[in-house]
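Predict the 3D structure for this chain.
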Amino acid sequence: MLFKSLWTFTVLILTFSLGFADDDHEMEEFLKREYSLSKPYQGVGSLGSSHWELMGDAMVTTEQVRLTPDMQSRQGAVWSRIPCHLKDWEMQVHFKIHGQGKKNLNGDGLAIWYTMERMQKGPVFGNKDNFTGLGVFVDSYPNEEKQLEAQKKRYTPRTQRIFPFVLAMVGNGSISYDHERDGRTTELGGCNAMVRNLKHDTFLFIRYVRRRLTVMIDIDGQHEWRDCLDIPGVRLPQGYYFGASAITGDLSDNHDIISLKLYQLTVLRSQKEEQEEEEDVITIPSVDNLELLRLVQTEEGMSGISIFFTVLFSMLGCVFLVVIGVVVYSHWNESRRKRFY
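Done. Predicted structure below.
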């Protein structure tokens, strides 16, 4: 536990340092209309006249693209027809989740995708399982919590999540999304987001720049972004498709997309960085040091006081070990000298 805590503390420092380092790079953004979806949704879903295609129960109205109505056993999606070859990008999602169900009697949620596959129905928020690429999920039903309650068990305070919950996952085509545990085993990170039945607008922000994935939310009606997750070392190939999907089961909700706005980010890179990225071509989605990141997330699940005392006692323990080592070495050295005299 001592070395685990010290290593986690070091990783956290490095992660924050990298975050500040990225802010030093100048960045410009440009709206890419061919990858964006907004009112009045002209031609969406019609053959050959739009960049976006509807699937399943999705339908277009004057106010939104409704992925699912507030009805049981529905699933729908909207997918871009054009693959995205941008190196750095930012997606701003204006969405709404609302329905007649009371708290924890609604479901199941929606997802924003950047994947190799498109237009394939499935159980993962209306998309196929074992997908290849990135999924950011707004999960509105706590499957694992309900199962634990049925077994007369409960979460520990450090592992409990509050739903709706936003999380991200990177799949390589062979990793399955675990419904029973609400994606806990494969999540990169996440945050709670009370987004149901709000009267003000709700937004999701997904940025991928310099192989760093950042997700933020704006759900409080204050027009301020709140951090959700920030993960370095995320490797996503170019040429994948953007999409949004949703699903309902025995419980339901209206899942609406009001807009998807994609921005191309222009980031200044050194000649060395450009060369390194050209040589390191990404063909399969992956995340660097994934197990190490999970370790950091586990420690972050502790309270601030617990983290403080864990780090404090870890450092004291390290000092104690150094002192013991010095004393032992001094005794050994003294004994060694006595043998020679």
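Residues 6-25, 300-304, 336-341 have pLDDT under 50 and may be disordered.
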